[in-house]
Amino acid sequence: MTKLNSNINTRFNESHASYSADGKTLYFTSDRKGGMGGLDLYQSEWVGGDWGPPGNLGPVINTIFDEETPFLTPDSKKLFFSSQGHYNMGGFDIFYSEKRQDSWSSPVNIGYPVNTPDDELFWFPVDSGLHAYMPVFDNETCESDIYRFVFTKSANPARYTLNGKLEMKPHADGITVSFVDKENKNTVASQKLDKEGRFQQKLPPGHYELYFSDPAGNPVEKREINIPPHFPQDEFVLNTRGTPADTVKTAAGSQVEDADLLTVVAEKAIPADTLWLESILFPFDKSSLSPSCLFCLNSIADLMVRYPETLLKITGFTDALGNEDYNLKLSLDRANAVSAYLQKKQIDPARLTVKGLGESMPAALNANPDGTDNPGGRKFNRRAEMQLSPLPENWIVIVKDIVPASLRSR
User: Fold this and answer.
1) Are 156 and 393 in contact (CB under 8 A)?
2) Could you count the other beta carbons within 10 Å of the beta carbon of residue 50?
3) What is the pLDDT of residues 320-377, one digit of tens each?
């Protein structure tokens, strides 16, 4: 491995580094002088047999808080990293930014349930970032395992209801606001403000310019807003940029007082439905549901209530200990336990198909290569798997592969 030169290695804290796929760009964290605050993300290029001077990725990526664990997708189009800043759910959240010519787009929070109030770090993307690996800490065992995450279905973009107000004297009657997509310069919506200067508009995520004009078509005010594709809350104040003057005179003689009073708020965000899907694990020789699985089952129930055409297939399994006929019955009991819980959540039993396959099709090793028992693998075989069909178009299904690679049997 090439030794990093003095441009990179310093006396400062540099906790993580990763290469681009071609090995010519190094992304790393550093708290060296001149940063935005705390740990920042930097990059360095391999030129002439050596690493060039590090360049800070700038205020679009870095915040006054810590940024950590940068990873670039193999196609070099997306940079995934963790941040305590931007808009997060608490601790470090996973964000991504897209490469646009020589700059990076505003970071996007990949959202719940991947991000939680805890720290999420070391999101390692595969392909275009729809597959990834990340260590997950288990509060019950106090251990971390590496999990594979798969986004199995894309979704329609979220739509947000934007509420805004333009403060004017004597009033804003007759003022029109137009929403222009900054990427393609298309006007996506236009409306008149009410007498109090208020407006409401539904928009998908994107970068927009808001143009305010009087009845004669003269410009009154301009603002920019950036709506992120994912956001963990239903209501938030968007970043806006407008005329810096405290008072702006219009061609009609009215005044826009204090440009900062143009506040755009997203209320009642309508995100695409997201389902966190994983196998339901059971204790040895039991078919009772543990509290840890109820979040997943409640999410399935909520979505099935909203989409009555969706059906669910539930398949139960056991480990390899015990009599084969007994295990077949136990596996069916486990599938029925899942079904019974969903029926309590008002899911019609006619929409649920249950099946028990006993100890067949193990997901993990029941025994070690030398024939000795493998209890760590067997616990992943005591499970119920679920399959939904058909999937509505606006669902995102995230599958959590809970079996460590060292224990997989298939």
Assistant:
1) yes
2) 14
3) 998 999 999 999 999 999 999 999 999 999 999 999 999 988 988 998 888 899 999 9
Report the amino acid identity of residue 104: W
Neighbours of 149 (CB within 10 A): 21
Which fold would CATH assign to domain 17-151? Neuraminidase (2.120.10)
Ramachandran angles phi, psi of 70, nearest 5°: -75, 140
| Single-letter residue type at 220 | V
* Terminal Cα-to-Cα distance of the chain (whole angstroms): 34
Structure tokens at 99: 């490469």
According to DSSP, the residues that pair with 131 across neighbouring strands are 126, 150
Contact by Cβ (8 Å): 79, 64: no
What is the residue extent of each domain of the chain? 17-151, 159-270, 273-407
Peptide bond preceding 204 in cis form (omega within 30 of 0) = no
Can you read off the two tokens belonging to residue 34? 């001149």
Structure token pair of residue 219: 């410009």
pTM (2 decimals)? 0.44
Q: What is the CATH number of domain 273-407?
A: 3.30.1330.60
Looking at residue 316, what is its pLDDT?
96
CATH of 159-270, one of 3.40.50, 2.40.50, 2.60.40, 1.20.120: 2.60.40
Percent helix, percent strand, percent coil in the chain, to nearest 5: 15, 40, 50
* Dist. CA 222–CA 180, nearest whole Å: 11
> Rounded distance, CA 310 to CA 316, Å?
20
Determine contact, residues 224/243, Cβ cutoff 8 Å. no
Alpha helices in 51-140 (DSSP H): none
The two tokens of residue 190 are 């236009």
Nearest to 368 by CA among 407, 405, 402, 403: 407
76 touches 125 (CB < 8 A): no
* pLDDT for residue 346: 92
Half-sphere exposure of 43 (CA within 13 A, CB side): 18
Residue-wise pLDDT tens digits, 87-141: 666 678 898 888 887 788 878 778 766 777 778 899 998 877 778 889 887 666 6
Q: Give the gyration radius of the chain's Cα atoms.
A: 27
Supply 104's token pair.
Answer: 């990076």
Per DSSP, which regions of 172-298 are E strands? 176-181, 187-192, 198-203, 206-213, 219-227, 236-237, 240-241, 247-249, 255-257, 265-270, 273-277, 280-281
Residue of 401, 400, 405, 404 lying closest to 113 (CA atoms): 400
